[in-house]
Amino acid sequence: MSDEEHHFESKADAGASKTYPQQAGTIRKNGYIVIKNRPCKHWEFDRLLKFPPPRLGNMDTLSVTSSVPSSHNCDVPHVNRIDYQLIDISEDGFVSLLTNSGDAKDDLRLSTDESLLRQIKEGFAEGKDLVVSVMSAMGEEQICAPKDIGPK
User: Fold this and answer.
1) Residue of 70, 73, 75, 74 lying closest to 25 (CA atoms)
2) CATH code of the region 19-77
3) For residue range 104-124, what is the model confidence (pLDDT) as tens digits?
4) I want to staple 63 with a disulfide (CB 3.0 to 4.6 A). Which of 34, 52, 103, 107 is the partner?
């Protein structure tokens, strides 16, 4: 045996996949699917299963359509939802969020969805204590819903 010490730095997520295969015919409305390497919400479908529009990441104003035979497998993203307390909204549209560990998270931009944007900005301006739900999939994150937890 050698007296040398070996130090390994782990920078990976242990090989965990960001997606899993699922038969296209079993994906239901409001489920998730990967289209053009982006996580998307299954919005409506017909016999060939068309999937518009993407609802994760910064693509919420775009519409992508994909036709997949219902018997074929397609990729489905692992989707997580985490709640953060809203601390501040900057002039350039970024938000400061408080994580469960007490650290600040400053890398998320407000949604371009007008209704959601209005709810967050109005609630914050009124001095409400807001918690925002953040959906994440395939390395992308997006604020999806605010919750009022009372006045500040």
Assistant:
1) 70
2) 2.30.30.30
3) 999 999 888 888 899 999 999
4) 52
